[in-house]
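subagent[fold] <- orchestrator: predict structure for attached chain, return tokens only, no commentary.
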Amino acid sequence: MNCVVFGAGAWGTAMAIHLHRQGHTVTLVPRRLEQALAISDCRENRDYLPGHAIDDSMQIGLEPAPALMDADLVFLACPSKGLSELLARIVPAAKTARPRMAVSLIKGLDQTTLRRPSEMIAEAFPGTPVATLSGPSNADEVARGLPTAMVLAAERDDNLLREVQSAVSGPTLRVYTSSDLAGVEIGGTIKNVYAVGAGLCDGLGLGSNAKAALLTRGLQEMIRVGQAVGGRIETFLGLGGVGDLMATAHGPWSRNRSLGEELATDAPGTLASLARRKEAVEGHRATETLTRLAKAKGIDAPILFCLHDIMYAGLDPRAGVTALMTRDLRSEA
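subagent[fold] -> orchestrator:
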């Protein structure tokens, strides 16, 4: 297929490399002109995914219109906060484009409207089916061709979704399908929050027991929040939920887990430095958006709310842990 990947961060670049390895025609379209020229010149994304060669036959796009002209599959890979800007740039060309499917690689909600990425992408590509590809998928490992499994979700698990599943799957990346689009998107968003919490446990030296308890109870919160937006329980027990959570909470490469570790020792300085970081830390923004969503729907999510208070209200991390441990006793079920 003719595949276009918008966004040349680590994940967008890794997906472009994987799709090219599958034999597809691939165009990678960076957000900035200077980044596109740099990648074209050295055939490597030295800013976001160094060490991985980009084949000479992969096209590096400069503008959306030529890239979209004959596209079969469009992948959107950017931080959640940059999706509105990316879509605004694409919309004029998207009006005349006729891709078979648009696939979100984005994990997060719009900070203003709390909309999911697929909802925003559907507006930009009217009449085009929209899916999300999510799960435990470190960019460096995917680019290296290490074994990975993910879930491709759309509102309908039909022949088109299975055709895209086949196109994306290969010897190093196994893709499952799901019709729970909302559940997979919420799972991919909220797991970043609990990964920050896992890092906080590590940074505070709370031990394996505490980290396991936080992730287990965090999974219960994930299910409650996910069900409130129409997600299904089995989704959060799969790759798009607990699978993604395990990788992000334990991976040494995880920026969300690392943020939690830093918060344990230097919360004010850590949060102040977020805006200066080259790569996005989605767990920080997701904590704020999901707290608003949970409170609006009356969902009990004490771990989520505690992490929100640590990141946004100056709560001392150890005081937050004490508050969680001394809540009213209850049944686990």
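orchestrator: received. Logging for downstream: Residues 181-204 form the longest helix (24 residues). The domain at 189-325 is CATH 1.10.1040.10 (N-(1-d-carboxylethyl)-l-norvaline Dehydrogenase; domain 2).
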